[in-house]
Amino acid sequence: MKSGLGLLATLLLLAACGSDATAPAVPPDPSMQQHERAGQLAYSLDRPEDAVAQYRQALTRAEARDDLPAIGDLSFNLAAAELRANRPDAALATARRARAELARRGSPGMPALDLIEATALYRIGQPAAADRLAAQLQSGDAETGAAASFLRGLIADDQGDIAGLQAAGQALSRSGTGGNDKAPAVKSTQQADAAELRARLARQQGNFAEARSAALQSADLRRDLLDYRGLARALSIAADAARQSGDLPAAADLYLRAGRSAAAQGDRTQAHAWLDQAIGLDQDSAITEAARQALNDISQGDTD
Question: Which residues does 59 contact at the CB level (< 8 Å), separation at least 6?
């Protein structure tokens, strides 16, 4: 499974805030509203499994009242929470089900749902399908287009496609990463994405010092955004750049930090890979001990 693209931060912002479309002029359903608020709270507290459960209950109420706008919005929220809970298969099914219903009933599509579908496809190992869908979204609104360009950059980097990676970075810049009219969190998200693509491009071109610097810049931005999956990914890019430049002590430390972050998020597969890298590279007993302790904690969690 791809660990790389957590929830695109644009989606995080939208899901955390909810949508005005779930507050129709007709009297609302108190149960639906209660579950939606509980889902938003769980999401904001980084409890994605609880958010999934609450959004699913809210969506069930929306279906009971045959409220199409609420069905669309809550399906998006549910799929976003499923992605954050590292359940891309479930997110893909939720997004596709909602898209089909919206189309069947003649309602305009939701680019955010398409973006979730593309993200889920990437994370389940279908990069070609993800790239085709993301390409269609690049010409949409600025936030969706920027997130789609970032996704295409990740796909290009995985494939060693330097030209594609450059094109994705340029498209992300054209989406207005420096616009003053954007919400601060959206602007910071796009800055973090742009820095990560710069890091990946520099690494592909053998400029490991620039790759490391840009990756750490992205990690700092993602920390402030509470995008810990993206932070761990950025740390791993910095670690790889340090390794390729021959700075093995720094690489071991960065892999430890990336693996520990991934472990704390429940991403055990990626945590194992990065922590093993830290142990394999390290000449510092403190780093080795910390990495082994983190691996031990994961193993204990597996048996609980």
Answer: 71, 74, 75, 78
Q: Where are the domains of the chain?
A: 1-105
Residues 6+ apart with CB under 8 A from 84: 6, 7, 12, 43, 48, 51, 229
Sequence-distant (6+) residues with CB within 8 A of 117 are 92, 95, 96, 99, 133
Instruction: Give, as one character, the DSSP assignment of residue 139.
Output: T
CA dist 133 and 116 (Å) reads 10
The count of other CB atoms within 10 Å of the CB of residue 26 is 8
Cβ neighbours of residue 133 closer than 8 Å, sequence gap 6 or more: 114, 117, 118, 121
pTM, rounded to two decimals? 0.88
Mean pLDDT estimate for the chain: 88
Task: Of 126, 22, 124, give the one whose Cα is nearest residue 78.
Answer: 22
